[in-house]
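Hi all, long-time lurker, first post. I run a small reading group and we've been trying to get comfortable going from sequence to structure in the token notation. Rather than ask abstract questions, I figured I'd post a concrete chain and ask someone more experienced to write out its structure so we can walk through it together at our next meeting. Sequence below, copied exactly:
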Amino acid sequence: MATVQHGKMDKAMDGLLSRQNYLVTQANDLARSFGNLTTFEHKVLDYCFSFVKAEDTSEHTYTAHMLDIIHHLGLNTSGKNYQRVGEAFRALNTKTAIYLRTYKNGKKGIVMTSLFDYIEVIEDGKVEFQFSKKVAPYVFELKQNFYSFKLSELSGVRSKYTLTLLKLWNANSIGKLKKATIKGSLEEWESWFLGSDDDGKPRKWSAGRFKQRVLAVSMEELGERYPKTIFYLTTEKTGRKVTGYTLDITPVETAVPL
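-- Answer (accepted) --
Happy to help. Here is the structure in token form:
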């Protein structure tokens, strides 16, 4: 009887993980976890990550100012843009679900949490935030080992898909933007770039649409920004059905952003 119950629990846990592709087991998984953010939301999140320092702890409170964010993004200081930044923080609070695997007394579990412990927006334009204590160690490791971009690099990117691919490239290379291979099933690629809907269900596109609208667009823009880099995409198939992609990225020499 216990074996049957254990099997049912395993299926229940697998079902939870299949609804949202936010399982984090190592730091660079965070680079794959926010496919449902818009380009603007990505850039506000990048701004938040830029505050992290090597000596920070999970108790650290960060303070940003809406006016600084508006200027960083090249926007004018209208009330509409203040509202836009505020809405971006609201979206970061609701769209950054994180699932963490746990093991206690030899038993598997899942912690359902989010990237932020809290975000407080104050009427003078100040924004205070803390990262979730469960997720903070991954944030710190991500910033230290993988997230080595200058904000100016990220703010100039046009497409959210290019931002995602840029982060995946960095997370999968040894050192910043070196040679890398990114490989995954079609479902994994879609989760990295498209995320999930409001019910937590993974967004699905046809393979042709995904390749044209996501991969081609992001590789083209990265090719413009890093012209001394070769992007070689291999489509994995079973028969005629597309099952996944392998992207090999090879800098011919150190690529300097335009």
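A couple of things your group might point at:
The chain has nine helices and nine strands.
Confidence is low (pLDDT under 50) at residues 18-23.
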